[in-house]
Design brief:
Blueprint: E1 9-14, E2 17-22, H1 39-52, E3 58-63, E4 67-69, H2 95-109, H3 111-115, E5 120-125, E6 128-130, H4 132-139, E7 142-146, E8 150-152, H5 168-175, H6 177-186, E9 190-191, H7 192-198, E10 203-205, H8 210-221, H9 226-242, H10 249-259, H11 271-278, H12 280-289
Parallel strand pairs: 2-3, 3-5, 4-6, 5-7, 6-8, 7-10
Antiparallel strand pairs: 1-2, 8-9
Length: about 300
């Protein structure tokens, strides 16, 4: 992978600040999965570039278009494991395939690398911030959002029911036990303003002030010495370990794999069946329509 050939990520350096822009606006910056060469692999490729660059002290993660990130592309979810379309005679993917992919995603390759990144990381959020977007928010050191942004773990409505999330430890410590379960079990959306009120982000500002606010915060972080940042990060890793935050990645990948083997009863909503019969868009809307007036 080479910087000048990235098509879904923009990487820019400005002195001691690296700015990473998720640049897949036609899909609202929806993520794929590790090893596919798409937006996810490209994001972690440039995060590694920033970690290796001694000039860089701060990394800002932002997005192009009208959404920060809407989670995973639901037209592709499941196929990475070898799922078919539910047609007769199709063979179910093996447990070893599921476990290998999820371990690679949660531990070996991606999410832990953001959480333990050696530079100060700042998430700059606008528009929709769903699923993977919330994970980036949670694992970045700092997060600033527009007040009208919309946060949600709506992927939980696929049937996870509070599982399959490597950031569950961090989310509970960040917003509290009851609030974390509320967000995960209901999958409800909250505004950027509410995200600030419950502590999911550091600050919510009007959308016209978002860029200015993040730039000022990033510049203030560059006033810290390089060794100070490195020592601070290493020290926090020890604290994270004592708080069992790092252990959240392991049950996260286990439970995500368990979910991929879920059996739906006849009276239960099955997104994969709906996607097969009606298409991803209709299946997606059918998933959330059931919650209208309830949460």
């Amino acid at each position: 992978m080479e910087l000048d050939k990235l098509d879904k990520i923009i990487y820019e350096k400005d002195g001691n600040i690296a700015r990473i822009t998720l640049n897949y606006p036609e899909k609202l910056n929806a993520f794929d999965f590790p090893g596919q060469g798409g937006i996810m692999d490209q994001l972690y490729f440039v995060l590694d570039k920033a970690s290796e660059d001694d000039d860089i002290k701060v990394v800002v993660i932002k997005a192009a278009g009208r959404a920060f990130c809407v989670g995973h592309d639901l037209t592709k979810v499941g196929f990475i494991y070898g799922f078919g379309e539910g047609k007769p005679g199709e063979r179910r993917p093996s447990q070893r395939t599921r476990l290998n992919i999820d371990r690679h995603w949660f531990i070996d390759h991606h999410l832990a690398r953001l959480f333990l990144h050696p530079k100060i990381t700042i998430a700059q959020i606008h528009g929709y911030c769903i699923g993977e977007g919330v994970m980036i928010t949670c694992f970045a050191d700092l997060a600033v959002t527009s007040e009208d942004a919309q946060f949600g773990s709506t992927e939980q409505r696929l049937g996870f029911a509070g599982s399959g999330v490597p950031y569950i430890n961090a989310l509970i410590l960040t917003v509290g036990f009851k609030r974390a379960l509320d967000l995960l079990l209901t999958g409800r959306m909250i505004s950027g303003k509410e995200a600030e009120e419950i502590g999911l982000v550091n600050k919510a500002v009007t959308s016209d002030k978002l860029e200015e606010e993040v730039n000022a915060l990033a510049k203030s972080m560059t006033l810290l010495p390089r060794d100070g940042i490195a020592i601070g990060k290493a020290t926090r890793h020890i604290v994270y370990n004592k708080l069992k935050l790092l252990s959240g990645f392991i049950p996260g990948y286990y439970s995500h794999t368990f979910f991929t083997n879920l059996r739906w009863e006849p009276d239960e909503y099955n997104f994969f069946k709906e996607r097969r019969d009606k298409g991803a868009k209709a299946g997606f809307h059918e998933r959330d329509k059931r919650y209208a007036g309830l949460v």
